[in-house]
Every structure is written in C-alpha cells, then in structure tokens.
Design goal:
With about 325 residues, the chain is of the alpha+beta class. The protein contains seven helices and 15 strands. Bound molecules: 2,5-anhydro-1,6-di-O-phosphono-D-glucitol and manganese (II) ion (3 copies). The site of one manganese (II) ion (MN) has 6 residues, from strand 5.
Length: about 325
Amino acid sequence: MKRLNTQLQEDGCPLELILLIRTLLAACKEISFRVSQGALAGVLGSTLSENVQGERQKKLDVISNQIIKDILSESGYVKAISSEEEDDVIACHPEGKYLVSFDPLDGSSNSDINSLIGTIFSIMHAPQWLEGDDPKAFLQPGTQQVAAGYVLYGPSTMLVMSTGNGTHMYTLDKTHGGFLVTRENVKVPEQTQEFAINMSNQRHWQGPMQAYVNDLLAGSDGPRGKNYNMRWVAAMVGDIHRMLCRGGIFAYPFDYRDPGKAGKLRLMYEANPMAFLMEQAGGKASTGEHDILDIMPEDIHQRVPVIMGSAGEVNACLEYYKES
Ligand code: AHG
Ligand code: MN
Ligand code: MN
Ligand code: MN
C-alpha cells in the first residue's frame, strides 16, 4: 500500500509542507494513543475551565490541544497557530512558512461515551509581514488553504486530507506507526438519500432550512419524491466522514437563538477545512448564501452556518434559499 510520503510527493506537495504535515500527524498519533487508553489513562471527563466560546472543556480537549501546540511550536515550520481551545493566536517560529488552525478534539462530548472523535486542521501560508501573534494573518478565505484534513479516532485511526490535488483517505497502521493510503481520490456521490442535522433545533432555523427538511421528511409522497434516512454522530468529523465515504448532506444551519453567532460551527477550524475536503472530492459547501471557502473571515473564532455534502443535494437545498 502507498505511504503518506509517496502520496504527498505525487500530489506535488513542497518538502517543508510534507515535514509540517508529518509533525502534526505525530501529535495526532499521540492523541490517538491517549484516546484509546480512555479511563485507564484518566483522560475522560470535564475540567473546571471554559474555552473562549463558553464551552466547558473536556480533559481530552485540553490534552489534545497541548500535544499539538507543543509539537507545532517547537517544529520550526510554523509561524503561528490558532486553536479552538486558545483565546488568542500563539506565535511560534519567526521563520516558519505556515499558519495552522485546528480543532484539537472535535465531538468532544463523545469522548466520555467511547464514540467518534477527531482532530481537524487547516494549513495556510504565513504572510511575510507577520511578526508575532497578529490574528489578522489568519483572516484569509478558505480558498487559500494549502492543506486541510482531519484525523478520525474511530475503530481504526484514519487521516483524510487534501493538499489541493484530490482528497485521499489513509489508515494508521499501528504495527509500524505509518499512515497508508486506503482510498485515493475520493468522489462524493452527487445524489443522496441521507441527511445529518440536529433535528431538535428545527424550530430555531430560518424558513428555507425548515421547508427543505420538511420536504425531506415527507418522503416519496413529498416534492423530493424519495425516502430519506437520517444519521447524526454529534461529531462533525464522524458525519463528514460518512458523507465523504457514501454521500449525504450535513447541515448545522443558521440559528435564531443567536443570530450573531450564525449556528454552532467555527469557520477557521471546522467549516473551512471540511469544505476544502468536500470540494476536492467533488462535493459542495455553502452557508446557504455563499460558498464557505469564499468567506473573508473577520475573527479567528467566528461561527458560520454550514450546509455541505453531495453536490446535487446541496444544490437542491440552496434552491429553497433562492426562493425565499
Ligand atoms: P467541538 O467538540 O469541537 O466543540 O465540536 C462539536 C460540534 C461538532 O463536532 C458537531 O457537529 C456538533 O458540535 C454537535 O452538536 P450537537 O450538540 O448539536 O449535536
Ligand atoms: Mn468545543
Ligand atoms: Mn469541533
Ligand atoms: Mn473541539
């Protein structure tokens, strides 16, 4: 089976970026090990602290963040980093060529029930002018990502990543510690009969999303003319992984409870990297009004509505927004 290095070289990835990716993955392997130890390593449960978004941090949020932060800041490849679990940007090496935004542990509420969790990352070039920890350096649209991906800590540990030359899936071979290509050039099926959305929030959505989901629920007798199935992992990494493997539509839409925050998911380290993977696999990613990758960020922790997955189904959903 093909090794990670070979795939990255075939995709024309520059050496320094390969080295950075390998460094980041060393951190993810460490997280994978800690996660698999579970209660034996005392890593489950919550801390007493909250992150900048007002979420109570899990022990694994804090541990994963620390592992990635330490390895990246010592690597020399990175000029600055930004994380869900850090209020501010952290300056790393002044000569580093890259910026990394990451969600150290996605779906952390699943950690206590031995269910799917993962790490999401997005890599961009560091601007020449950047000195120190100026967050403006990170405010680049998702189209500027040079690599994005996630590591899924499931029954097997998988890496799904794109460096702009297709989306590939890798499986961690724990016998020798390397990631091997197990699915090259993933293509998301254009049509689907599967959706993933937290239905308990339906009454808080805007009209178009409510109408769209009502039509899905109407099944073969409704305007969509087919029966849909619903799945919700409660971890974006798990839901997006399913979409990439077999198609589907995932949404965490605009929510009226807090219009300023526009839903739950964060642009820089959740929506953008997943949108990049999705588009590289022939899928689509939108807020309902704009392509996610075109958004000019205003804040490193900003939230955006997310609708992504099979292109045909995302387009069908967007028709409801056009009509409104
Ligand atoms: P995180 O654990 O990094 O804070 O992210 C959790 C997010 C995302 O992974 C998932 O899609 C969503 O929260 C689940 O939300 P619900 O609580 O509405 O199921
Ligand atoms: Mn969180
Ligand atoms: Mn997350
Ligand atoms: Mn997280």
